[in-house]
Amino acid sequence: MRSPGLTVPASGSLLIWLAAWELAGRAELTLLLPPISAILARLVEIAPTAAFLEALAITGEAFLLGNAIAILLGVPLGVLMGRSRIADELLAPWVDLFVSAPLSALVPVIMLLFGVGQTTIVLTVVLFALWIVVLDTRAGVRGIPPSLLEMAACYGCGPWRTFWRIHLPAALPEILTGIRMGVIRGVKGVVIGQLLVSVVGFGQLFEIYSSHFLMEHFWALLLTLFAFAVLVAEGLAWLERRVDYFAAARH
Amino acid sequence: MRAAVPGAALEAAATGEGGAARPLGRGALRFLSVATVLGLWELAGRGGVNPALPAFSETALAGLAMLADGSLPRAFLVTLEPLALGLLLSTVLGVGLGVAMGLSRTAEWLGVPVLVVLQAAPLAALVPLFTFAYGIGLVSKTLVVCVMALPVIVLNAYRAIRHTPRSLVEMGQVFLASRTGIVLRILLPAASPVIFAGLRLGVAAGFIGAVLAELLITPTGIGDLVTYHQSIADYPRMYAAIAAIVLASVLTIGLLERVEVRLFRPERAGR
Amino acid sequence: MSAAALRPVETPIRPPIVELRGIGKLYGTVRALAGIDLDFAEGKLTALLGPSGCGKTTLLKIVAGLVRPSEGEVRVAGRPVTGPGPERAFVFQDFALLPWATVLKNVAFGLEMRGVARAEREERARHWIAEVGLTGFEQSYPHQLSGGMRQRVGLARALAVDAPVLLMDEPFSAVDEQTRRKFQEDLLELVARQNKTFLFVTHSIEEAVYLADRIVLLSPRPGRLAGIVEPRIRRGGDPERIRRDPVYLDTVETIWRGLKGWVE
User: Fold this and answer.
1) Min CA distance, C214 vs chain B (Å)?
2) Model ipTM?
3) What is the CATH code for C1-87+165-264?
4) Residues of B in contact with C132 (CB under 8 A)
5) Fold held by B62-264
6) β-pair type (C71-76, C79-80)
7) Span C144-173, pLDDT tens digits
8) How far is CA B42 from CA B37, B50, B64, B66, B235, in A?
9) Nearest by CB to A102, which of B117, B120, B207?
């Protein structure tokens, strides 16, 4: 079964929710929820500031690095598990464990072993993103019709070339899905890591804003993160749709 | 058609399931894998790779000690409160909302985009916010669990209902099932695998939320065990507490799978 | 159409059990059916035959009450159709079995929806399971059965509710050739024993001529009534013999020539 994530349909209901937010904010229903217009204004104000940009750089760096590692490790692992029963049996217990374990509980351990800094954050992102990349890649490889591989063997394709010319393209839809899921988890990872470490990047900013009760700043930051996560997810979903037809002819 | 159908037996045999792939071999490899990793952990711990890395045996013993002196069970109970409450609320609300969205186009139009955004968004960032609004007690922690678990549960339930094969619904209509009958007897059982997959993801997210709440808002329960033992540098106990919660999460999710098969999809019991 | 196969339609002795008047169906701007006027006689097996896109399944679902016509009216046993009803049962092309229920529960499903008590509906289900030749498989699940067996379950379920009109949507198209032939023979036997009205959608000319008392031909895009054929084939006796009956072969040939034009 493919495509576990939905993509945001271009529907007007989001506008309705935003309008409701604006009204709730103006009516001052709760201190927590300033009107969206105020938040956006604040965002425009703080975005160019040095503190914000530096936090953005730190967070972005950890996020990109962590995800890159997760992909570079995860895809080959997934292919390995997909092709080899033995590798599958050996690695499966750990992948299954980590894909559903409360990973935030493991962050203190990482903090302990690697200190309070960028390394920990990067490792947290890897921890959050890796396992779903492996699982989805494995699913993609296992979904390759055997006849495709038999065909390649018939025409004299060696194992290395089969990997690049058959396994990767044939499993690409699932691999992209896995990457997308991994990226989404990676965003959560970078946020949770920074919240727990709290002296770096956005986590530090959150700490500052919350302790000074700067709700508008807080939400501006939050929305930036949310928007970033959704944009990346949408971008990858678009890519997935472009290669969807790889899977369509399978059955 | 009453004429004997000898072919029936043949047909059944022809579609019989392929034999289980050497169950003995599979179990052995898994055991080997787990044993190897634990062995490496033991060696790394003993070898002093990192002063903060205790050996596996030390961790296991510490865990047993905490069980024995009651600190682990007590901590669990405290953590369980917001977790169980939050998950229960999320399940009831989530499945209900998801089914409603699956049945009503208006609800679908209103709900899906905002929930897709919420599912992709790092909701953990909201945790400090809840501390402001609702203090540091049970309410805010339960809320954290709910917020983390709801989106994925709702979306899965919604998708499951929408993807029920059309012919099953038509079959229900043709055989005069009532609207309620169709929902309860056809849509829900057909949707149960995906709903339960959503519940499993929801439980996982809920556990993350509960732990996060305890590490960020105020240390109680397992979070307290972890932070306390870290602060006094009793690493075996700290690791043991973490392992305990990880195990608890895995076991709960496994249990959910059993419950699902038992209640809704008995035909998967054999497979 | 040669005169040998096409005869003036006989006036039925009893009033037709299903009447269609001016049936049309629009999907947006696409017209699936146009101006269908038909009567179906009680106790007969009528086949709806035509190439893809001629709306035969749509027509069947309109009779079943699953689809509302854009124009026209359907009457069953004199009463207008506004939705599904107890006098019509349906056999689905993809079987539509509940995967989580045993064969027994699946067959009893229609009875359960009508409020029949458990003991009685299970007894009736067992009777029909035996009628379709699946004795011994009551506790099996659909995934354990072959395609042919699954369709028997679907048929048993439709028979169990004892509806006078049985609607079948390409019921044998999802099974293999050998099973198909066996099914056709078994169905003929069943039709001879039961006094129900059968409405049967198929795209196979052989199947239609083999089984039907009356064949309604539909032309595609939009679906219109193209002709009615009543093959004068002697039924009863060896079902195998029918396939070599010259009337059978001629009728198939004639219909094929007529339909050929629409296939391109």
Assistant:
1) 22
2) 0.79
3) 3.40.50.300
4) 1
5) MetI-like fold (1.10.3720)
6) antiparallel
7) 999 899 999 999 999 999 999 999 999 988
8) 9, 12, 17, 20, 14
9) B207
